[in-house]
Amino acid sequence: MTEARGSAGLHGETYPPGTPCWVSLMVHGMAATQDFYGALFGWEFRPGPQQLGPYVRALLDGHEVAGIGQLPSDRHLPIAWTPYLASADVDKTAAMVRHCGGTVGVGPLDAADAGRMAIASDSSGAVFGIWQAAAHLGTAVAGVPGTPAWNELFTRDAIGVAKFYETVFGHEEESLAAADVDYVTLRVEGRPVAGIHGVGRSLPRDRGPHWLTSFEVADTDEAVTRVTDLGGHLLKPARDTPHGRVATVADPEGAVFSLIHTQGRTEGRTGR
Predict the structure, then answer these.
(1) DSSP letter assigned to residue 38
(2) Locate the VOC domain: which residues (predicted)?
(3) Calpha distance 6→197 (Å, rounded)
């Protein structure tokens, strides 16, 4: 998972197209959300582009790791972390999204001198972002507590949706060879960059197909306690997996994410 992002974007280089390069959260209470994640991950914040309203970038030891923006008071959209996939030309990628049965809800538009962006949904309805880097390349540090560790799409049918991402971004697909598991790993230049988990009828009706971001922590159980102490909620208790110890939680506004201690593992992984 740490290796999934490789060195691209982390040492002043642009992320290869199709690689998750940034995560962003739109909320109603900016100040309270910053307090929550600042206490949980040790993030500090500074202003970012304001094209879609008030927006800050989260920094870890001076390195940009995520974004938080404010929803208009009259917009009652689901509160969720959204991964952004890198693109060399966001306008062409947005056109391909539409061609492959997805929709483009925002943009493409310029985010000041940071880059050009769009927010889209795939053929199953899961929302994701598209980022064409300029001054802002994306997440600047990885593999340490407080950084995005993995992005996984939960949908009804992994194989069908994987074809969408393969066509739009050029991902290579690797299906898990297990009769009872519908899982596809998306790869870029041979590296695992994201996962697609087909869960059929187990997909939550109140959420539908959605991306889930996992954040690295030093101690999963301690981080869960911190989440609940800060007003968040535990959704799935901490459990050991082949990829590390994982728990699923929600922040006070309901944004769902996972906490994972990868124990030095670097291969692509899932939140199962």
Answers:
(1) H
(2) 147-262
(3) 22
Question: Given a cut of 70, is residue 263 above it in pLDDT?
Answer: no
> What single DSSP character describes residue 4?
G
CA dist 226 and 38 (Å) reads 11
Is the pLDDT at 269 greater than 50? The verdict is no
What radius of gyration do the chain's Cα atoms show? 17
Q: What is the pLDDT of residues 183-214, one digit of tens each?
A: 999 999 999 999 999 998 888 888 899 999 99
- Give pLDDT tens digits for 207-236: 899 999 999 999 999 999 999 999 999 999
Run of H or E including 121? strand 115-121
**Distance, CA of 212 to CA of 214 (rounded, Å):** 7
Residue ranges of domains in the chain, CATH in brackets: 3-133 (3.10.180.10), 148-261 (3.10.180.10)
CA dihedral 67, 73, 76, 80 (to 10 degrees): 10
- Main-chain phi, psi angles of 81, to 5 degrees: -70, 135
User: Measured between alpha carbons, how far is 270 from 30 in angstroms, rounded to an integer?
Assistant: 30
Can you list the positions of beta strands (E) in 203-263?
A: 210-216, 233-241, 244-250, 256-261
Q: Could you tell me the CA-to-CA distances from 248 to 6, 213, 239 in Å, in that order?
A: 25, 10, 10
Q: Is the pTM of this model over 0.85?
A: yes
